[in-house]
Structure formats: structure tokens, C-alpha cells
């Protein structure tokens, strides 16, 4: 029983570290969030903190993974309540909330570039994340096409890739252009995917 208790405490401490790191990075940014500051905030030494993670890079990858889990839980709840439209609204809300945490956006963007190296700690995370995100998004687009909310002539996989790339690109732009309304851009692009009525087609001279 003592072993199980120790394991449960380790899981709880790991969760505390991740949530604390999320807060520290959101406030101070990727480069301003030191292992020492995060360790101090959870009452550990730097060595004690890194006992739970292999390195600072692995810690940051798990921070992003934990943020994804929180966002996914919100999207699933919205999907259960309002269907695909609700999940899409949740995605737009994530883009809106990301504008308030540039530190996390910088962490995500910086690691996304560094992860191009297959040896980097974040490489597998970004490959898996992009695959899952695009699969979920393309599935949602197919359902919206079936419901008549998206032009059936459009390719769902291509759209999913384009929207994901747009979201990532917008986050990079927002680091420079702080007043950029990322959510509005996403909403505009999604709205443009809707079928056009014949009456909306421009008349030929």
C-alpha cells in the first residue's frame, strides 16, 4: 500500500508541476520561465523537479501536452452538447484565449521549429499532435459537409491541413502583431467554406 501511495503522490506532484509551469510560462514566457522558478513555486529543488522529467525540454513538452488535454476536454464537452458546431466554437475560443497567453504561444511556436530535428524531445509530440488534430478536424469537416454546412466539393483533408497551418501561422503573427484577432480570422475562413446560393454568385455582365 505504501508503494501505491507513493506512486499516487508522484502523479499528483507531477500534475501540480505541469499546472504551475503552465501558469509561470503564461505569465513570464518561454524564455523567462526558469526551472528554478517553477521548482520554487511547487516547493522542490531543481533536481527534485527534474526527477519527474528528463530535462527542461521534456517538461515543456509535457506542459504543452497538458494544455492540449485541457483544450480537448473543453472541445469534447462542447461536441457532446452542440455537435460539430460546438467543437468548432471551442476551437475558436482556444484561439481567442491564446491571445491572452503569449508566453504559451511563444513556447509552442519555438518548440515547433526546434522539433524539426528528429532528435529533439518535442519531435514525436508535434508529429502525433498534428496527425490527431488533422484527423479530428477533417472528420468534423466531413460531418459539416453531410449537414450541408460546408461545400461538399471541398477536400476535407486539404482543408484540415490548411486550417491547422493557418492557426499555427496566426499564433506566430500574433507574437509580433499583438492586436491580431486570431479567432475572427478563423471564423471568417470557416464561414467562407459554406455552400454559396446561386443568388450569391456574381452576375455575368
Automatic annotation (TrEMBL):
SUPFAM superfamilies: Homeodomain-like, Tetracyclin repressor-like, C-terminal domain
Pfam families associated with the record: TetR_C_6, TetR_N
Keyword Transcription regulation: yes
InterPro entries for the chain: BetI_C, Homeodomain-like_sf, HTH_TetR, Tet_transcr_reg_TetR-rel_C_sf
Domain HTH tetR-type: 11-71
DNA-binding region: 34-53
Key words of the record: DNA-binding, Repressor, Transcription, Transcription regulation
Protein name: AcrR family transcriptional regulator
Organism: Promicromonospora iranensis
Top-level taxon: Bacteria
Amino acid at each position: 500500500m505504501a508503494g501505491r501511495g507513493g506512486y499516487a503522490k508522484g502523479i499528483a506532484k507531477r500534475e501540480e508541476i505541469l499546472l504551475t509551469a503552465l501558469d509561470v510560462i503564461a505569465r513570464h514566457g518561454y524564455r523567462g520561465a526558469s526551472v528554478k522558478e517553477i521548482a520554487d513555486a511547487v516547493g522542490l529543488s531543481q533536481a527534485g523537479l527534474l526527477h519527474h522529467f528528463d530535462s527542461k525540454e521534456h517538461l515543456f513538452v509535457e506542459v504543452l501536452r497538458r494544455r492540449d488535454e485541457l483544450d480537448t476536454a473543453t472541445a469534447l464537452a462542447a461536441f457532446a452538447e452542440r455537435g460539430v458546431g460546438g467543437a468548432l466554437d471551442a476551437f475558436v475560443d482556444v484561439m481567442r484565449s491564446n491571445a491572452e497567453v503569449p508566453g504559451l504561444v511563444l513556447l509552442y511556436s519555438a518548440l515547433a521549429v526546434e522539433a524539426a530535428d528528429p532528435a529533439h524531445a518535442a519531435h514525436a509530440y508535434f508529429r502525433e499532435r498534428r496527425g490527431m488534430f488533422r484527423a479530428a478536424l477533417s472528420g468534423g469537416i466531413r460531418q459539416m459537409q453531410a449537414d450541408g454546412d460546408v461545400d461538399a466539393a471541398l477536400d476535407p483533408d486539404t482543408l484540415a491541413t490548411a486550417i491547422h497551418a493557418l492557426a499555427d501561422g496566426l499564433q506566430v503573427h500574433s507574437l509580433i502583431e499583438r492586436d491580431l484577432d486570431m479567432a475572427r480570422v478563423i471564423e471568417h475562413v470557416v464561414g467562407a467554406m459554406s455552400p454559396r446560393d446561386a443568388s450569391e454568385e456574381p452576375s455575368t455582365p
